[in-house]
Write a structure and sequence with these properties.
184 residues, alpha/beta, TIM Barrel, 5-stranded mixed β-sheet, 3-stranded parallel β-sheet
Length: 184
């Protein structure tokens, strides 16, 4: 298939006027001027985007799709710690089904705006097995909890990450796991 657009923007080089991309399967195999690609590739399928521009997919390198449904529900707080407490209180009102719906709604929104890859920090990693991600997704376990004096928050976090890794191994094939701690 050849997809033609008024302008094609690549990751290297200037924008290509009257440009196109050649897609074979799910991969872009060639990029260039439409007239040149049309001659070089034999295909009957041409999608003409008209006057639109064609850009590489966007990458959201840090998001929390779990919280899509919490937008606008948490008032501004005086400190980061207060904000964490407020979000934890709001999170407690949601069911696992609410979180799955929130993640799916977040995917729809991201895809609508051109995002093709997401690095998602999930508060409930055990739910990942229930999600059919419509775009390329890297899953990270969010382990923010307000721990009590006995440190049971850390124990809960360790238990949850163990369940997350087990679920990924069973349901998502090979993965790499990364730590994320901007506060350490």
């Amino acid at each position: 298939m050849i997809v033609r657009a008024k302008v094609v923007v690549t990751m290297d080089g200037p924008p290509i006027e009257n440009g196109a991309v050649v897609i074979v399967g799910e991969r872009i195999t060639d990029v260039g001027k439409f007239s040149e690609l049309r001659k070089a590739h034999s295909t009957d399928e041409v999608v003409d985007l008209g006057e639109r521009g064609l850009l590489p997919g966007l990458i959201n390198a840090h998001c929390h799709l779990d919280y899509t449904r919490l937008r606008g529900k948490i008032p501004r707080q005086k400190s980061f710690t207060d904000w964490i407490r407020a979000i934890n209180a709001e999170k407690a009102t949601l069911s696992p089904q609410d979180y799955v719906a929130s993640i799916n709604e977040g995917f729809v929104e991201a895809k609508r705006f051109g995002t093709t890859t997401i690095a998602n920090l999930t508060a409930f990693p055990e739910l990942v097995a229930r999600i059919q991600a419509p775009i390329r997704t890297w899953w990270f376990a969010e382990l923010i909890e307000i721990a009590d004096a006995l440190g049971t928050g850390a124990a809960r976090a360790f238990y949850r990450i163990s369940k997350f890794v087990s679920a990924l191994r069973r349901n998502c094939g090979p993965r790499r796991y990364f730590a994320h701690d901007p506060f350490g």
